[in-house]
Fold:
Amino acid sequence: MPAFAATGRDRFCAAVVVCAVLLRLLYLGVPELLFEEAYYWNYAMHPDIGYLDHPLMVAWIIRPFVALLGNIEFAVRAGAFLCWLVTAWFSYRLTRDALGQPTAWRALALVAALPVYFFFGFFMSPDAPLTACWSAALYFAYRIIARDDARAWLWLGAAIGLGMISKYTIVLLAAAIAMFVLADRPSRKWLARPEPYVAVLIALILFSPAIIWNWQQDWASFSFQSQDRLASRFSFSLPRFAGNVIALLTPTGVLSVIALAACRKQLAAGFGRSQALLAWLTFFPVAVFAAISLIRVSKLNWTGPAWLGLVPFMALLVTPGLEAGVPRLVSWCRRAWPPTMAICLVSYGAALQWLGPG
Structure:
């Protein structure tokens, strides 16, 4: 592809990021709080080391902004925007380390434009800090497996621990990382070294406030999020689960996942073992949520953070190149991503205007 076309794509991705950031900043304080946001604001007004249905992080993020700026919508949501910046930073770093700077800019555009990460970075909920911690954990797991970075274990432990006091579901990512280390022969060497066990200790220390609160409250939150939910009414919601994934990633995003599976051999040279790592860290949590949807109601936000593992792969489909011998679907996705991003941004602007002054 001609050089000028690649430069044009770079400028387009930069414009997508700038527009997404400006949309958030302009409208962050405009729409009234959602019911859930008001609920978490109430958490912040009664600070504690634990709560019934979620750990402490969402309340502790809201509290200082409200204390500084007052009880306004912007203050409640400011933390969500900062969490998106963390998510974007680690997604950028992961893609840059794996595939280089040009692809990293396209990954940043995807994190800015995809519905799941736009709204996780706008409305305040436990998913905002969870996604930030999930992104950081993916980056440090990559550093461990692909770069043999021993110090990354310590940061991985911190990311998992902070994620656990954000939302319990990051335990699926921790389990996926542990299973990969056990199954991958070159990675088993870490089992004889102290770093993984120090990482577990760091995670437990950071998670200890939630453990202490649950111990004081007869394990109320753990029970509510586990056996109480599993004891709820049977509901086959796999079609709803599939619809939720399409809503989070857009149809172009879902087709990109299929296209990436079709040209995985071309991608293997760029990713090496980390290709298998990121694919596993994505599809294990997604598979768990899909299995749950066979018997219980599927929630829209369930799989949101899990797709961060595929952002570097998707960024390859925003990048010109690899056209010869690839499936038609791959070429279609390359053409579809720019208009998809533009449509998403226009839709976000219209929706926020309708929710606020409209």
